[in-house]
Write a structure and sequence with these properties.
It is built from 4 helices and no strands. It is mainly alpha-helical.
């Protein structure tokens, strides 16, 4: 679901296409995960959690985000955390339902 964002791409985007590549694309992918989350099984949820954690790690390494994009950058990081929490809650529900 969520495409992997590579550090090389981030370096290229900062020079001109930051908003589209770093902020818009991941945000749209997050919306897609959010909309489909209830239909995911545990395996898909685990894959999405892994991808989101990798994205969080890549974003945390960014030190040269232009000030004009900081609000959107932090909003993206918050959105990732929100979706991660929803995925983890859904996973817990599925696991507890299978144990019952």
């Amino acid at each position: 679901m969520l495409e992997k964002l590579k550090i090389g791409n981030i370096c290229n985007i900062i020079t001109g296409k930051l908003y589209d590549a770093l902020l818009i694309h991941p945000t749209l992918a997050l919306r897609q995960v959010d909309r489909q989350l209830e239909s995911f099984d545990v395996e898909v949820i685990d894959q999405e959690i892994k991808r989101l954690r990798e994205l969080q790690s890549e974003l945390a390494k960014q030190v040269s985000i232009p000030l004009s994009y900081m609000s959107e950058f932090y909003s993206l990081r918050e959105h990732i955390s929100f979706i991660l929490n929803r995925l983890q809650q859904r996973r817990s529900t599925l696991v507890s339902d299978t144990k019952s």
